[in-house]
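Task card 7
Instruction: Convert sequence to structure tokens.
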Amino acid sequence: MSILPDDHSQSNEPHDDVSEFEDDLTEGSSKVANPVADAFTRAMDHFSDGGEIAPLNEVVKVCTREYLDAILPDQPPTPDEIEKQLLAMVNGVCKVENRKTRIDREKLQLLKALMPVQVAMIVDHLFHVAEVTPGGTQQDDGLGVLSIYQDSGEFVGLHRRVDLGLLDELARQYNFGHDGKWLVEFERALRGFARKVPENQNTDLVVMGNLIYDYRNDERIPFSPNYVFLAATRRPI
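Output:
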């Protein structure tokens, strides 16, 4: 399958560079191989008008959105696969875009690591990200807690605050060598994608060890991101 056009053209003829990108985009589960390669083709088609070289930000945005649309949140590739495949997509498009100019200063730089906004888009796509307004405060108070819903593990059923180590933990999965500036930009981008939701104010609902219990109606409710809690009682019933 040819997914890069020939040099100095925008055709669909085979190119010598194609194998390196095919290897990166088809590595891993066969369930994501074809959709990811198709996403790469769509990204290439987006920039195939033969016009001026596209800005790097546009290349990153288009490639990341096409890639995320191609993977399933409930069966995603591993973080390592996502990093490798997405970098291959962005750099593949950049290489072809660079053929539109002979001036070195106009050429797009290839990415060596995922950008903060890309990882924020990935996390927002794969997880339930929310800016939770704590009880007793208003959404415009500026006190929203950036959180990610946990569907398993120690914090199951809760919207876990990212400022308690979770943010750095997620960042290292997709960019192991990130620094403090990268992390700040990642958090800012993630907060921009997060939906704003109020913390649960119904005192009859209590998070137990394995479910939510409604005392008023004596009802056991399965965990769901639709029930927003930042803390739990954690005792079985």
